[in-house]
Amino acid sequence: MTKRAIIDVPELMRFILTGITATIGNIAAVWLALFFVPFKIALLAGIVAGLTISFTLSKFFAFQTKSLKRVGREATRFLMVYAVGSICYWSIAVVIRHFALAYGAPPKVAEIGGAFIGAGTMLLTSYLGHRFFTYQSHQCAAGHGDKLPWGKNKQEEARSPKGPNPIHWGMLIATLVISFVVILLAMPRDMNMFDEGIILSNALRILNGEIIHRDFYSCYGPGQYYAVAALFKLFGNSFIAARLYDLVIRAAILTAVFYIIRRESSVFLALAFTAIGGMWFMSIGSPLYPVFPCIFFSLIGSYLVLRAGEGTNVLPMIAGAGVLTGVTALFRYDAGFFLLTAHIFSMGALIWLSDPRNTRLRRMLIATVVYGGGTAIVFIPAAVLFLLHAPINAFIADIIDYHIKYYPVMRGLPFPGLPAIWSNLADGAVYLPLIATLLALVELARISLRRWSNSFPSLRTTDEDRVGAYLVVFGSTAFILFFKGWVRVSPLHMMLGIVPALIVFAIVIELWWHRGRGMRTAAVVLLLLVMLPAWTQTKSELKQSVAIADRSIAGWLALRTGIITPPAAQEQCETGPASGIARLSSDYARITNYLDTYTRPDERIFAAAGRHDKILLNSVSLYFIAGRLPGTHWYQFDPGLVSRADIQTEIIGDLQRNHVRWVVRDANFDDVMEPNGSAQSSGVTLLDQYLDKNYRPVAFSGKVKVLLANDTKPVALRSLDKCEPTLMP
Predict the structure, then answer these.
(1) Do the beta carbons of residue 503 and residue 358 sit within 8 Å?
(2) How many domains does the chain have?
(3) Which pick of 164, 171, 306, 309 has the fewest CB atoms within 10 Å?
(4) Is residue 465 part of a domain?
(5) Model pLDDT for residues 172-206, shown as the tens digit of each residue
(6) Which are the contacts of 706, defined by CB distance < 8 A and separation ≥ 6?
(7) CA dihedral in degrees (339, 341, 346, 352; nearest 10)?
(8) 222-252 confidence digits (pLDDT tens)
């Protein structure tokens, strides 16, 4: 008899799947029970549901002890192990809920979060107890000692041709969890007053029954608004719920990067490039930016195109990629267009490289029709639904007219030159998609030459095909999505192209590593060059979090648990009525607390700039922080639009029609200049003149003023006992 390893990997994976299923059943039972009983009683319902599912699946699936002769003893031992796990589960869930509520989390978020973390702890304790005590599966029959972790024995592995590296679900789960936790702890609590505010405010407008483009201006698709609105519907208008959703998306992207790279490269490279991506997502900021879901869907879609290129379920894979492109377009119309272009080009290149000349056109037409059908299944119903409720000209004005006429001129930023990159290495990341494309072309040419000349030792044909497919698909995607960030050039806006570029770099480095000492040195240099911009950005972000003790979630938790001592001069006014744990400047906190005191919950307000003949942006997040809806269609200020006479006239009409009494004028961004058309005055001051004539200042903090309509007196609806602005006579 051969003693098995301490951990049997296939068994562990089966148990994790069992635990996930039991955890889902557990949380579902808790969730349903919360509608009828208190939280602590609801936990009991979760325990019963999890117990039933866990025992059944662990015995017959995870540990595969199918005999019923010892079921009584196994059940007794199972209950003993489960009892220990339940104590851990109950204790941790109650403690987590207590602290989450104490630090401002909504009750449902605190309760479900406590149940989830407690269930995860119970999963870990249960596995070891069942393996070594309940089922004693660490003892096994002879012959298993020759098994490799992936299920083949050593002789089979030696005989089998090299193929894609198999990947356990455990690796992916670990990558997802670790990525999420690290990004969460590093997450700054600062609320982005413009980009994040757009998503949060529009989610509120969606919940109010308003329709994108018809009722409010938007240069994005509806996907992110509806996703966050769904979270608000479940958990209330919660800042932390929206942020956690954003972190899950970022962690899912990193998991996809790890999976795709690991399939063709070493664990080291998969981890290295996942870490590089993690550094970007820790430090790049812009929470809730719709590009992040687009990156995730584009990665999965590109992987499906890759699998189709390998000959696996070709048409279903192509259709699935098309579906994901349709979903991408609902989050960002332009990202969906560029991704469609990249995938059509990739499929054409793969077909041209692999198919006989007389079948290429037919195969390409079939692939295009299937892919387009997948895209249409998602996008066309959404478009029809929109057109049933809104005119097409609203979409054309927001998406086509603005992006063609104004966006390049008013929002464009130049590509950084060598001096700019030398002063900030992170800016050099905008060129990574182009470098990756060039390296992919070089390697594809090398593979073609090897096949043509047969003068070099070659990989197996299947390996070359697979490597070539990687380079074609992700090289094309990186190159074409590079043009998505062509106008507003920055690492953030280039991230759609940077992420697939990381996959290309990993494949190239893997190839170089096996070509002798000189190429190994080149591979190391390339890895360091790709890592340097991400590390520079991350280092800068971490310095800010260290300088401000509670800026990050890790620092915030450390202060509240007494691990570190708060500085004596720490600002105590940093939260608004609906900001949750978000960190605000004291000016915005004071202003929104004032609005909460003097305005009705159903009253609309207007977040204006200090001047409107020259616009960069406005403080859109004020709507969410104050918990008040915007009083105009044009709540989001984009240069070239709000600085126009016709748009200012529409805003004035909205203010009158919606009886908007309260206006916030924020001059913090008036003097911020970018090297584009937004720095120029339009000479249009209609809105400024209207506000000066019909409103008067009643309070201020810093450069932010609260205005009240001239025919109205401020009446406090509740007491204002903290974070008060300076009142004006």
Answers:
(1) no
(2) 3
(3) 164
(4) yes
(5) 888 999 999 999 999 999 999 999 999 999 999 99
(6) 591, 594, 595, 662, 663, 664, 697, 698, 699, 700, 725
(7) 170
(8) 999 999 999 999 999 989 999 999 999 999 9
